[in-house]
Amino acid sequence: MIRGSMTRCVLLAAALLAGLAARGRAEETPTAPREAAPAATASPAPPSLPARRYRIESIAVTGARRATASRVVIAESRVVTGREYGEADLRDAVRRIKRLPFVLEARPTLRRGTAPGLYELVLEIEEASSFVGTGSVSLASDGAVGGEAALSADRFVGSSSRVSASFGLAGLSSVTYRALSGVTQELTVHPPTVKEASLGFQQYDILGSGSRLSLEIGSTFGGPTGTAHSSVSLLLPTARNHSIVLKAGLWRFKGGQEYDATLPRFDPAFLRFNADSVRVKSVTSARWIYNTTDDPFAPLEGTFITGGLGISHTLRDDADRTYPWRADRTTLDSDLSVLRAFRLGRRLTLEAHLGGTCASSEDDHCRDSGLGAALRYVHVGRRNRSRAFAEIDATLGGWGHSTLGGTYYSGAWRATVGLRLPFAAVSFSFIRRFND
Amino acid sequence: MRGMAYVLGVAGLSVGAPTVEGADSAPPRITCGQKACTAARLPPILGDREVLGYVKSGLTTTLLFTLTTKDRAGQKQRAHAAVVVRFEPWEEFFDVEIGGRAPSRTRVPSPAALDGWWRDLTLRFDAPHAPLPNASLDVDVIPFSEADEADARRWYAESLRARDGAARTNDNRRVEPLGQIIDALTLGSIKRRGVLQFSWSAAIEASP
Known about the structure:
In chain A, 11% of the residues lie in helices and 53% in strands.
């Protein structure tokens, strides 16, 4: 049964779609040159070459080690030959290319076409390594340690397809005892046991420029619980920086807490873990994405907004049968996330972010909301072959009025350093939570 | 944890820096008079392969110059001048717009003439107070200038307007607080797109 938050979900979806339609209309009329913002009325005129638009006759890619990569780059640019584009259009195209997982840097140059007034757009790219190692470690002020590491590889096949595989450790270590004030701290560090593997396939340009079909299967194993999932998604570009992603997936969870439904009243003490308990659910979702960020690892500027609606339907739940009540088999989930990076200097940016998810099955409907800001220093190496960052982030996770009176809030401070090279990306975070 | 710090430290040392100190080239000639300074004999940064790539990309590139001096009270003075360049691949000329108190637009007829034009380029900066003998000159290379250029132009114009106001009150050496704020915003917002930066230090010559 879907409860009252359905209305909230639908309203959120309506707002998202209305925003999408408005932005889409605004960006679908790029033929007229964009008016420059009026300059102040100072007597000395500032420098201003008139804005120009360029008719792109052809597109070429240089610097790609793999021919298929060139075709994917052209598709992802969403530049259609024969049309006119302004510099802002080309800048956005370059940023889309730079967000591709196998591209570090892209730089555009206009060359002569076959006739005056026609131009060839040359995109000079810097490819990342085919093998990339990633790792992240986080240390919390209460002693909790978290982390993950993975090694991934990709390979292009056919005219515009890419397969990727990843294998990693999902939990480098964990702390089983949480220190209390005045109590001797006892830490037990587990060796990395939970492993995860995934296999992906992307078919670019499947339904026109910029579209993408993705298939993914993945599994975790080695721990007390296991998860396996498979999904298919279709990304459709709707405007210059907008996309819609339709996704369908199947999830299988093994291992869960069970109960004895014959007991008269619920007592958590009687919960027991059953490693053979299975839950299977299907998830169907639609997501809108607006993205103008300049880098996926550590952006210096740009906006990223995404909102989605998903219907989750439980096909099988062994544990649920053991409880005296029945959980909703179908839930409607929605989420919205907004991120905006304001560049304060050549290497300094202030990022504001806001996000939240709502689910019809939750008693309080909405959870995981967060509002925060991060001050980030980014050092970009030549041709973006290296990118290092250090940031301090403050996020307010929840706030409201307590039934005991007064207000409460919770959140976290986080300091992070990270480095990305053509073959690796690592980060380390220190987290201090408050009122958690 | 120490291992991670070591990895990050070693990797950090290998990171190439896009900032280029102009120590290996002759510094520009900076001359200051009553209320203005000029910079001439600019070091040949257009010979840098990366800069030339931007300038000859066919898209707009802004070279934002910042002259930093100190007045006799030790207060920093910053003044800006911008050179906007766009190459036309078909005709192989460069359209150039030079900002400042006397903006001008010119056309450099060929890539071969670009070096000569750069060598002869003289930029004028406002300097309401007589500066001390040393100055530094920075240039930021800012690609993609359509929408962003609008911002840069707006802030740049605001900066000039503030300097007009300051010039009107130069006798009592008052610098309007709003002007300082706008100046700081100008610097921050115009520089935000820079992908390369060159810096030089030079002694100031008195104008004849």
